[in-house]
Amino acid sequence: MASDAYQPKPEHKFSFGLWTVGNPGRDPFGEPVRPVRPPVELAGLLSEVGAWGVNLHDNDLVPIDATPSERDKIVKDFKAACAAGGLVVPMATVNLFTAPVFRDGAFTANDPAVRAYAVQKTMRAMDLGAELGAKIFVLWGGREGTETDACRNPEDAVKRLREALDYLCEYSIDQKYGYKFAMEAKPNEPRGDIYMATTGNYLGLIPTLANPELVGVNPEFAHETMAGLNFLHAVAQASEAGKLFHIDLNDQVIGRYDQDFRFASANAKGAFFLVKFLEESGYDGPRHFDAHAYRTENFEGVKDFARGCMRSYLIMKEKAARFAADKEIQAIVKDIATASAAAPTVGKYSKSGAQALLAHTFDRPVLAAKNLPYERLDQLTMEIIYGVR
User: Which residues contact 138 (CB under 8 A, 6 or more apart)?
Assistant: First the structure.
């Protein structure tokens, strides 16, 4: 297929955060290796590489101590840069993890004044996002956790989190912002343990909220993978529940720190099945790359990184189409889903159906003898991914 098939277009809805392409390469053991670039320059970079959207934490754009007049000037200039580059702002979020005031958490902190400040800061970030046109608001509780459970009852933490989310939903309703809130889970780092460790944790919390229809999830590839979990399964559960409001794409090696590698750079098989699912499930939200260029890179290397994320997604999208069109693969997929013997349909419960099911005699040896050629199916899948089929 021609190489231009892998060039991003607006309909692909590829987005990056200011914090991703703006990462200066600082880590816990090393100083920055790239200069900090202003948001308007980062908007120009994203326009140059062909991105559709740019996302931001409040303080990625507006410094935490900016005056109101400084804030308005910054926002005005950024809006102009986005308009000039043809960029939209589909998602906004809030930084509740960098400032020392959040060292014990934000919504779950023991100090009620800190919890109130966290809600206030989030409201102002919502105001900013709405001004820029965002309709999705992501919440990642990077400090909502512990190093020692002696500090608080974890039930209290859940209650405090619920109270904050209910308040913020009502604020969005009152302001007519129309936000969908997308909750982002992570098992650990920067805390020893984070309360909402997995996407499943949030899917369990959401139905207990006062406005559950406004709240979904923002699964991140690296975060589930850090815990050794299957990211695709988390995404599929969220999608089936109607709660896949946003998604963070990157890559990660199991068991390592939060690496945020370029999408599909470490786990091509996982990336393939993820892209296949997103494209076939009808997900129409942003494909957001929450990843970072290697610390070795200069500003041109950051552009290579951003182009690589989008190109890899489109390569996997093409491979998913090949999988769907492959006659041998589809014959196997069809056969393994075909009943090996006549059986009553389970479906929705009814008394008569239950009686028929109880009365049916299953031939276990026949069921056990059905051919399940998963080795062949997986090999054919890998040959699609390797590009030899």
Answer: 55, 91, 92, 93, 181, 182, 183, 184, 218, 246
Among candidate residues 60, 251, 260, 290, the one labeled active-site is 60
Look at residue 4 in the predicted model and tell me its pLDDT. Answer: 80
pLDDT of residue 1: 39
DSSP-assigned letter for residue 326: -
Asked whether 34 and 302 are in contact (CB, 8 A), the reply is: yes
Q: What is the mean pLDDT of the chain?
A: 97
Which of 297, 260, 279 is CA-nearest to residue 17? 260
Reported as a single tens digit per residue, the pLDDT across 172-189 is 999 999 999 999 999 999
Own/partner contacts of 231-240, CB < 8 Å, gap of 24 or more, are 231/270, 231/274, 232/270, 232/273, 232/274, 232/277, 234/198, 234/199, 234/200, 235/199, 235/274, 235/277, 235/278, 236/277, 236/281, 237/199, 237/200, 237/203, 238/199, 238/203, 239/277, 239/281, 239/283
Peptide bond into 373 cis (omega under 30): no
Region 23-31: mean pLDDT is 95
Q: What is the mean pLDDT of residues 313-340?
A: 97
Active site residue 223: no
Residue 290 falls in the annotated catalytic set: no
The answer to whether the predicted template modeling score (pTM) of the entire model surpasses 0.90 is yes
pLDDT at 6: 96
- Name the residue type at position 143: R
CA distance 117 to 101: 9
**Secondary structure of 124-155 in HEC code, one letter for each residue:** HHHHHHHHHCCCEEEEECCCCEECCCCCCCHH
Under a CB-based contact definition with an 8 Å cutoff, are residues 289 and 310 in contact?
A: yes
Model confidence at 3: pLDDT above 80: no
Task: Name the residue among 28, 50, 46, 27 with its Cα closest to residue 37.
Answer: 46
Length of the chain: 389
Closest to 107 in 3D by CA, of 55, 47, 163 = 163
**Computed from CA positions of residues 260, 266, 272, 273, in that sequence, does the dihedral angle turn out positive or negative?**
negative
Considering 12, 27, 57, 363, which one is annotated as catalytic? Answer: 57
Planar angle of CA 169, 200, 27, nearest 5 degrees: 85
